[in-house]
Amino acid sequence: MSKPEKPYRKREIGGHALSPETLMMSYGFDPKLSENSIKAPVFLTSTFAFDTAEDGAAFFRIMGGKRRDGDPEAAGLMYSRFNNPNVEVLEDRLTLFDGAEEAAVFSSGMAAISTSILAHAKTGSVILHSSPLYGATENFIRKYMPSIGVKNVEFFASAGEAEIRKAAEEAMALGPVSVIYTETPTNPTNNLVDLVACVAMAGEIEKKQGSRPVIMTDNTFLGPIGQTPLSLGVDIVIYSLTKYVGGHSDLIAGGALGSTAALAPVRALRSMIGTNLDPHTAWMLMRSLETVKLRMTAAFDNARSVAEFLRDHPKVDNVRYLGFLEEGSRDATVHARQSSGDGSTFAFDVEGGEAGAFRMLNALKVIKLAVSLGGTESLICHPGSTTHAAVDEDLRERLGFTAGLVRMSIGLENPDDLIADLAQALDAV
């Protein structure tokens, strides 16, 4: 029986460990397998030919979790809903910055989120989650999951260990806690969840109920350059790859990274319900990964300049930028412990509420008025009427939203130009 050739996976040279930004150029792809092409071709095919009927049978046994003695360790290429060369190389490279055993990619960030949650949160169980969350995630957990018998209990993102424990006890009273779902920093308010406290709480829950909940963290806001939750004990880190990893506002994708064991049911469900990523988008993400560290580092630097301008503007209040956390505060301590950057997406309040915010937004000339974040261009929006409009108004208010709150994602333009644009737009307020 033939065995698929292994991809190119050299991680060191003469005892010298290669860095992720170097490995992004070659890891997981052997040019000899594709006519010596330096870049992987786009494999626009729905299906793959088997060398023998026995190979096909073995591959499907492996995919179905029924591997026999003598079968290959991994399934060869079969059908692009299951595997594809572009997807496999992308998943190999996504593991590098986060130090993950495996990665799985999806057709969108919400496909990654929903598939991961559904794979681990079974009927009768409870999700313990931080709030606020991205609007669609909030609604998925609060409004959809109860329809299939999965309850939820929240704790505020900035909660201390005692508050998280209180929420955990409330959750365990309702049923076994299957998932601890977090998003940090939060979208759009930049609240910080203490991931170390969540990992400790998962251990306490395991002692009481006999099973450990799977900890999931949406790391989209800081990305793999600004934070690596797996190193803190989180089981699955989730990304909207649309954002910083894709980073050019030209694709939609999602990813889930973690251990082989944690991702096994996620992969199985992805194949079953078809939330997989297409090969062309996978190829585009491979291109983007080559520059992700450069882009994110530059955007982080630009964001500080813009945030400092806004902090001192008389028509702006409460700039929620991570670089402004009060030294010695709970948030500053958490940020220093689990993050390595201040990010480039933050929110601030504009004088005059929604009307004032809209006047400023409509007066912008350089910064694009659009949802999403993490692109090469700077984007700005009013979350209360767009990305979080479906979240109940009382919940938005409780979680720190104001009528004049706007969210801004800083890109790669000259920061002086962004400041000039904001200055003239704020004159309209």
TrEMBL record:
SUPFAM superfamilies in the cross-refs: PLP-dependent transferases (SSF53383)
InterPro entries referenced in this protein's UniProt entry, alphabetically: Cys/Met-Metab_PyrdxlP-dep_enz, Cys_met_metab_PP, PyrdxlP-dep_Trfase, PyrdxlP-dep_Trfase_major, PyrdxlP-dep_Trfase_small
Keyword entries, A-Z: Pyridoxal phosphate
Gene3D superfamilies named among the record's database cross-references: Aspartate Aminotransferase, domain 1 (3.90.1150.10), Type I PLP-dependent aspartate aminotransferase-like (Major domain) (3.40.640.10)
Domain of life of the native organism: Bacteria
Pfam families: Cys_Met_Meta_PP
Membrane-spanning segments: none
Classification via CDD domains: CGS_like
Cofactor: pyridoxal 5'-phosphate
Family classification: Belongs to the trans-sulfuration enzymes family.
Protein name: Cystathionine gamma-synthase family protein
Organism: Hyphobacterium marinum
Organism placement in taxonomy: Bacteria, Pseudomonadati, Pseudomonadota, Alphaproteobacteria, Maricaulales
